[in-house]
């Protein structure tokens, strides 16, 4: 279990990933029989989600029925809601899910780096102590170079982890109304 600032980061990341999975599933369901890129109709009260279907329009012409399939079709939505619905179409939601997953991946990578860095620092400390006792160095590379590299990495992690941690917590607040949300995650 990774812990940063006294929160269970594994639980936080798992919570967000579960919400993203739900968002993705719902977005894919919404465009199962429609286009994933919705837009507003000319008068702003129709959310257009079905693109033209030339083959269907041709059949409509052959049958002599009104031709509707050669234009975008959609659902009537009250004018004040339509822009919001069109803006948050499935394609938008799927891009948002992908972006947040990349943020979580980077955060988890940095958390693992921090753990690996701590282990490497312990190992180098033991090597340096052994060198002081024996007067010889039998480890890989030069200890001072390795120590400088570890310090640079430590500085990087110390700067990046808190920033990414706050972004991850902020991403979780989108779902603060979910029963699994923990108040300790609030930034």
TrEMBL record:
Pfam families in the cross-refs: DUF6221 (PF19730)
Q: Which region ranges are annotated with the description Disordered?
A: 122-143
Q: Which domain of life is it from?
A: Bacteria
* Protein name stated in the entry: Uncharacterized protein
- Originating species: Sphaerisporangium melleum
């Amino acid at each position: 279990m990774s812990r940063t600032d006294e929160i269970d980061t594994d639980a936080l990341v798992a919570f967000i990933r579960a919400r993203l999975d739900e968002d993705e599933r719902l977005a894919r369901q919404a465009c199962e029989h429609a286009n994933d890129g919705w837009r507003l109709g000319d008068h702003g009260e129709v959310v257009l989600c079905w693109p033209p279907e030339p083959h269907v329009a041709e059949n409509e012409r052959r049958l002599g029925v009104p031709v509707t399939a050669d234009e975008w079709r959609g659902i009537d939505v009250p004018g004040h809601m339509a822009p919001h619905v069109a803006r948050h179409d499935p394609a938008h939601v799927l891009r948002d899910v992908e972006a947040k997953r990349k943020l979580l991946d980077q955060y988890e990578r940095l958390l693992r780096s921090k753990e690996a860095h701590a282990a490497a620092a312990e190992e180098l400390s033991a090597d340096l102590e052994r060198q002081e006792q024996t007067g010889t160095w039998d480890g890989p590379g030069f200890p001072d170079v390795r120590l400088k590299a570890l310090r640079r990495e430590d500085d990087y992690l110390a700067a990046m982890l808190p920033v990414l941690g706050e972004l991850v917590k902020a991403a979780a607040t989108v779902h603060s109304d979910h029963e699994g949300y923990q108040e300790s995650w609030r930034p």
